[in-house]
Design a protein that fits this description.
Layout (H helix, E strand, L loop, with lengths): L4 H8 L4 E2 L1 E6 L5 E6 L2 E6 L2 E8 L3 H9 L1 E6 L5 H8 L11 E3 L5 E3 L4 E13 L2 E13 L5 E4 L2 E4 L6
Antiparallel strand pairs: 1-11, 2-3, 2-6, 4-5, 5-10, 6-9, 7-8, 9-10, 11-12
Length: about 160
């Protein structure tokens, strides 16, 4: 018998995670993004990270097409960006300050940091694929992290970072 998916979600909801917006650029130049907390550092040598994406998500085909992504780590003041990029449908970047790094994936201004990656492998994992990215560039920012715990946004108390 399969493990109860609702119970799995509830249990994993007890695991506090950071919140990111993963962005990419299609080969035709269009850009898109999604809110993600299923990201992880995989290797330091070579420098690799992983983003896990549902096979049915629009972002899945965007990553497959663009072959790059940026992981933008959100500050607690950027909860609105998390909400914006968590919504289905086309993504509106028109009011955001963006930069480009090595791959062309959009970098969001004012984050805790970003990693700019080219996709080097795609590994199947159930109803998701894991997009392994080689880090080509990155930068540290300032601020306190936006966290997700117990199906809600959380933040670290002042002075705890």
């Amino acid at each position: 018998m399969a493990f109860d998916s609702r119970l799995q979600r509830d249990i994993m909801g007890r695991f506090a995670t950071g919140v990111t917006v993963v962005t990419t650029r299609y080969k035709n130049g269009d850009i898109t993004g999604m809110t993600a907390n299923a990201v992880m550092s995989l290797s330091l040598d070579p420098p690799l990270v992983v983003v896990s994406v549902d096979k049915s998500a629009t972002m899945h085909s965007a990553l497959s097409d663009g072959q790059c992504y940026a992981i933008n780590i959100l500050t607690r003041e950027q909860e609105h960006l998390s909400n914006r990029f968590a919504m289905p449908g086309p993504k509106d970047f028109s009011d955001l300050i963006l930069r480009e790094s090595k791959t062309g994936a959009p970098i969001l201004e004012g984050t805790l940091g970003y990693l700019d990656c080219k996709i080097v492998d795609i590994l199947p994992a159930g109803d998701h694929d894991m997009f392994v990215g080689e880090i080509l560039a990155g930068e540290l920012g300032e601020g306190n992290p936006l966290l997700y715990y117990g199906s809600r946004y959380q933040s670290i108390a002042e002075g705890q970072v």
